[in-house]
Amino acid sequence: MGRILLGDRHAAHRSLLKELLARVDPSLTLIVSGNSEDILRYLVDFANERPRLIILDPSLPSSVPGQLLTIIKSDARFAQIPIVIWTAQAGSDYYMARATGKAAMSIIKPTGPKGWRLLVQKIYRLAIGQDLAGESGQEDRLDTVGPAI
Q1: 109 and 86 in contact (C-beta within 8 Å)?
Q2: 29 DSSP β-pair partners
Q3: Those residues with Cβ within 8 angstroms of residue 46's Cβ, 6 or more apart along the chain or in another chain
Q4: Residue 7: which residues within 8 A CB-CB, separation 6 or more?
Q5: Nearest alpha-carbon partner for 86 in 63, 57, 59, 62
Q6: At what angle do helices 11-24 and 113-127 cross, to 10 degrees?
Q7: What does pTM read for this prediction?
Q8: Read out DSSP for 74-86?
Q9: How many CB atoms lie under 10 A from the CB of residue 86?
Q10: Residues 59/9, Cβ–Cβ less than 8 Å
Q11: What confidence tens digit (pLDDT) does each residue in 83-96 have?
């Protein structure tokens, strides 16, 4: 199926997302990292398969705080890979990333089981290339929107 590259500073979030995505599609590989330098190293290593999707927490530890999204999108090798910004807090920087086209979607991290199920559904749909056009252009609060899965 392919790979998803996840950068999140919270090991519990990385583990949970990996487990839930494996239940949806065992052929999907989630590559996880807790810092931005590992994300960049993975991307530039030509031996690695290109991810179909990148998920980034903007609070990811970095030697270039706040610049990881710009670095990835300014490199022609990665510019076409959709990026999802997921965060525990809403904020103007995350709306701007979406508005400027640097991020395909911005999501507020879920706090409950229903929200995690909805998150996995959206991530899977993006990873398989399903068009999400027509969905809200605002940040998704996954604990309160959408049908139960």
Answers
A1: yes
A2: 3
A3: none
A4: 32, 33, 34, 35, 36, 38, 39, 54, 55, 56, 57, 60, 68
A5: 57
A6: 60
A7: 0.79
A8: HSTTTTTS-EEEE
A9: 26
A10: yes
A11: 888 877 766 565 55
